[in-house]
Amino acid sequence: MVETILKKALDGERIDPAEALELFSTDDILLLGNVASRLARRKSRDRVITYIVDRNINYTNICVTDCAFCAFYRKEKDEDAYVHPFEIIAGKIEETMALGGRQILLQGGHNINLKIDYFEDLFRKIKEKYDIHLHALSPPEIVHTSRISKISLDETLERLSAAGLDSIPGGGAEILVDRVRKKISSLKCTTDQWLEVMDKAHGMGIPTTATMMFGHVETHADRIEHLMRLREQQDKTGGFTAFIPWPFQPGHTELSLDMGITSAVSGFDYLKTLAISRIVLDNFDNIQSSWVTQGPKIGQVALYYGANDMGSTMLEENVVRAAGTVHCLNEDDIKRLIADSGFTPQRRNMRYEYV
């Protein structure tokens, strides 16, 4: 059965949800990896593996959503709560540009004091001072901003774009199944709201990425439903430049402390899920390796399980780090991992154009 499904995928036919779920039944991840890798190579040129030099800047850690999987957020009264002033953010941008970076990933908590005018002012200041791509605000942040600013989603996106927003990261997707979201992030936007942000953004010519955080309370069927919702949206608008699946990190989170989910996703499960993602998402050109959560070795092996991108040098990363997972690679490290795997490293931008 699994072999028949994989042959169908290799023949260029789209597999359905039941077939996708069946792929989780096999323990032959070498076979899954072989098929996923062949599909990935069909979409890339000359055995090239891409990467980007950028930095994840968290403008605030104050958040009201209390997500059970998050060890990063703080309440406003906490001693280590912050909203970075522009001078701090500017300093981080300058450090990034000094290392050759031309993009920043700007995300933060759902802070009820930061309305649309805060982001308009911040984005304009950044764009006036720096020639840098602004990859900013996940869909839940945008929905939150729309809600507390008492303006429509369309107006929110239009004003953010006018102020300098270049693209939107795919964070906050977690699992795009509302039953799961109610358990781990009940105060965040719904599945339909997350997809609505992406739909509207794509319609405005704003490219985005998509993510999936797995390995907590979801089932394999939930993972497949997530992939199907993304595939359906990509069919409709074609605005996703990449998919990034990454495993839940249990350290210091409510899911581990109160719900007893203490074991991290194994390398086996990660590579299987990555390969199935590549097989299912036939309309996504790029899938990213998650070395930030899995470490450099599994991140490297992922290049043979459907990934064609090593992601970011991640000059700064605070969310995964807060859960106790710390892996660091600089540009030379990433290039070496790619070359040692038999591929050619190539720096890119958010649109996957070579730079």
Strand content: 5-15%
User: Helix share of residues?
Assistant: 40-55%
Alpha-carbon distance between the two ends: 43 Å
CATH topology: TIM Barrel
Spatial strand arrangement across the major sheet: 7-1-8
Structural class comes to alpha/beta
Radius of gyration, rounded?
19 Å
Describe this structure as you would to a colleague.
The structure is a single chain. With 355 residues, the chain is α/β, with parallel strands linked by helices. It has one domain (2-9, 21-347): Alpha-Beta Barrel (TIM Barrel). It is built from 16 helices and eight strands. A three-stranded parallel sheet has the order 7-1-8, covered by helices on one side. Strands 2-3-4 form a three-stranded parallel sheet, with helices on one face. The chain has a two-stranded parallel ribbon with strand order 5-6. β5, α10 and β6 (240-247) form a beta-alpha-beta unit. α3 crosses α12 (267-280). The protein is globular, with a radius of gyration of 19 Å.
